[in-house]
Amino acid sequence: MTIIAAILLFGIIVFIHELGHFLLAKKSGIKVHEFAIGMGPKLFSIKKDTEYSIRLLPLGGFISMEGEDESSNDPRSFGNKSILQRASVIFAGPFFNIILAIILLIPVFLYMGSPTTTLNKVLDNGPAQRAGIVAGDTITKINNQEVKTWQTVINTLNKSKGKEVNIILTKDGKEKSVNLKPEIKDGRYSIGIETKMKKDFFASITSAFKTTANITVQMFKFLGQLVTGTLPGGIGNSVAGPIGVVGLVSDAAKTGIINLISLGSLISLNLGIFNLLPIPALDGGRLFLLAVEAIRGGKKIDPNKEAMVNLVGFGALMLFMVFITYKDILRLVNK
């Protein structure tokens, strides 16, 4: 069942990605030959103006547009549309994945509740308990900065680097001020407190947006470390390929639907952000080439040269995927 859950999850994420490309292509008047879910031989297809098909291997999908990778005189071809129209079609896939990530997080926060600035628990022998902070206190300020979200508390404590902070709290209309030094735990600075969760639909939407934004920032930091070679543990131990991701999905499926949905949100966001990187063969690479075309005053890049660049990029990505898959297998064997 966990393998089926993984396949369904990947299928939905890829479907949403390709749906983004497809809807914007149709809106721009581009002729779409095929909209396929899966790869390999066709299992089922229906032909209208566009052929809609389901293919044997539930890994990936694609849309085939007129004039996408070759010259075409058809006025409905991809290459004959404006730079803005082509860019919107390419950008739509990753954007739909980012939106899906937000949508999937809403029921997660609705189930779990959204973090508040009121404390649910104060851990024994932590800096907060020693300073006299108790459950039910509400944090209103840290170092004279007004606190409206739990994320502000986390960020401010991490920025302190263990230096003393001043915290203003209220409870039953009474205000108190404490000074304490955060302690490092699991790579983060904390004072030994847990937030009280509140179940609220609109708060869940807000939390979904903020969490997506925070994860996106962390992903770009990760990519920065990847490029500079400062990634802790090395790339092979920090990146998962298809086998590794299936393992993560399987583990999440065993622990419940909420964990599976939460992981699905993370995978969708990763797919969206990764596809926007300016790497040949990715959506970001194609957007980069369109930006070059715009800088050149609309003078198009030779389709053959563009195809060659994308082919080289695709080959490099495949080699990278083989390396990561090899690392996945080694981790699986060692486990």
TrEMBL record:
Pfam families: PDZ_6 (PF17820), Peptidase_M50 (PF02163)
Annotated Gene Ontology cellular component terms: membrane
Record carries keyword Transmembrane: yes
Entry membrane topology: Multi-pass membrane protein
Location(s), subcellular: Membrane
Protein name: Zinc metalloprotease
Cofactor: Zn(2+)
Example GO BP: proteolysis
The PDZ domain, residue ranges: 106-173
Sorted UniProt keywords: Hydrolase, Membrane, Metal-binding, Metalloprotease, Protease, Transmembrane, Transmembrane helix, Zinc
Transmembrane segments: 6-25, 89-112, 257-277, 307-326
Keyword Protein transport (UniProt): no
EC assignment: 3.4.24.-
Organism: Romboutsia maritimum
UniProt GO MF annotations: metal ion binding; metalloendopeptidase activity
Protein family according to the UniProt entry: Belongs to the peptidase M50B family.
